[in-house]
Design a protein that fits this description.
The protein contains eight helices and ten strands. About 35% of the residues lie in helices and about 25% in strands. Helix 3 (about 70-80) packs parallel to helix 4 and helix 6 (about 160-165) runs antiparallel to helix 7 (about 175-180). It has helices spanning about 10-25, 50-55, 70-80, 95-110, 120-130, 160-165, 175-180, 230-245, and strands at about 5-10, 30-35, 60-65, 85, 110-115, 130-140, 155-160, 190-195, 200-210, 210-220.
Length: about 250
């Protein structure tokens, strides 16, 4: 039986995922939760309006591509009947909420997947966290991405990732990814830069440990106010990697 995927959110990332699933011979699109019917145009037959309806449709994996508030509302509801892949990962900066979700997963044998999204190297950070001393990330985007009107390059924030995610929960999910897979929200250093001359979204990640250091630089043209062109493709293939495991060579 083909794996069934439910979607929460039908914006830039959600719509791309829905289109790819419809074209994919290995996956089935089960449902979409999206209150804005304009956003969901063309996918009306998949729309559900409650978690009870979603559960009745059935899903092996539910993918969130909406916003942190939706994650906080949906997490425990979704995990009752499916695993959960979350893109608005700044929702987990609150320790109590994150711990409650983790405990629920233990009790109900569920998983919350943390996709790498717009950046690379998350697997290396997760694998090496016990020997990593520091993780830093600098994100540069156009002012409008942050809701600002800067006319010159401006350093907006530098400090723990926790505060960065509080200030810009929809813009720095990559900082939350690094915090969740690495040294945590308080020990990951975030820098946010607003630059009207920026040609797209860029992220510079530096990781240091005893006897090693690596730097990852990622650039992606903007597909919207907050999403780069690479992210939707990355998102879909993260779903495939979780649900479809072909025989042969596999990256781990």
């Amino acid at each position: 039986m083909k794996p069934r995927v439910g979607l929460i959110g039908c914006g830039t990332i959600g719509r791309y995922i829905a289109e790819r699933i419809e074209q994919d011979p290995d996956l089935v699109l089960s449902f979409i939760m999206e209150p804005d019917r304009v956003q969901a145009q063309g996918f009306e037959s998949y729309l559900v309006s409650s978690y009870a309806e979603a559960e009745a449709k059935g899903a092996d994996l539910v993918v969130e591509a909406a916003n942190p508030a939706v994650v906080r509302d949906a997490a425990l509801e979704v995990l009752r009947f499916a695993d959960f892949m979350v893109f608005s990962l700044s929702a987990f900066l609150e320790d109590a909420f994150r711990e409650r979700v983790a405990s629920f997963c233990e009790q109900h044998k569920r998983r919350v997947y943390v996709p790498h999204g717009a950046i690379l190297g998350v697997d290396g950070i997760a694998d090496g966290r016990e020997v990593i001393d520091s993780v830093e990330i600098t994100t540069v985007k156009k002012p409008k991405s942050y809701g600002r009107d800067d006319t010159v390059r401006t350093d907006v924030y530098e400090g723990p990732a926790r505060k960065a995610c509080e200030l810009y929960p929809r813009n720095v999910n990559v900082h939350a990814i690094l915090a969740l897979t690495g040294l945590g929200f308080d020990n990951t250093v975030s820098r946010i830069v607003s630059d009207p001359a920026a040609p797209g979204n860029s992220h510079l990640i530096t990781v240091k440990g005893d006897g090693f250091r690596f730097t990852i630089e990622v650039f992606s043209e903007s597909k919207g106010l907050v999403t780069g062109t690479y992210t939707p493709v990355s998102a879909f293939n993260s779903i495939k990697r979780v649900l479809v495991r072909p025989y042969g060579f596999t990256a781990v």
